[in-house]
Amino acid sequence: MKDLFGKAMFDFQTNNSPEDIITETSISEEDEMSIDYLFRSYDEMPKIEQKALQLTIGKTLDIGCGAGSHSLSLQNDRNLDVISIDISPKAIETCNLRGVKNAKVENILDFEGEKFDTILLLMNGTGIFGKLENCNIYLSKLKSLLNPEGQILLDSSDIIYMFDEDEDGGKWIPSSNNYYGELVFNISYKGEKEEPFNWLYLDFNTLQNAAIANGLKCELILEGDHYDYLAKLSIL
């Protein structure tokens, strides 16, 4: 990976002529994403993210922390002990420049040795699963990092709305054995193209079934304005 997302964050933080990121998926055309969105304050965050931060307690692991906005809010406004991880080295450099106290380059599947009261996966946290078939691997790993009364707070979206309706009012999904929430993302930044990567959007019922299969209770906490939701997972 060329770490273009990380480069964009780092350019924004260091005022190095940042540009919008161009995103394209297997079911959508090119779109522009302004990188300053990743640097928003608590007051600028969507209600789902605000609610997740309100519910966060105790020792916290922020997975896919990006530019560190969620971690900074918890660290500075709530005085919580937060470990922030991301697979992007430049994202972690950005976090360090912004004052995130404990940020490290790490893949969650490789994380060991500590347990948490809250684990956060925000901004479509299920995306890192990549494909539906990987849910068990990730949920099992997340469960192993929870304290007995701990919680996982994650958000995602049911992207069925992106597909056209057929004559009967149902949704027309291209014939494939794949789950409709499995997308391939392509991003480019300053003329460079990143390697394509898999990204998973999960509807709540599918998440709930996967959670139960892994010994986790799954509660719907909040629904957003656009098919998105916040869920809480805890050990059964």
TrEMBL record:
Keyword Methyltransferase: yes
One MF term in the entry's GO annotations: methyltransferase activity
Domain Methyltransferase: 59-188
A single BP term in Gene Ontology: methylation
Keywords, ordered alphabetically: Methyltransferase, Transferase
Pfam families linked: Methyltransf_31 (PF13847)
Full protein name: Methyltransferase domain-containing protein
Source organism: Flavobacterium chilense
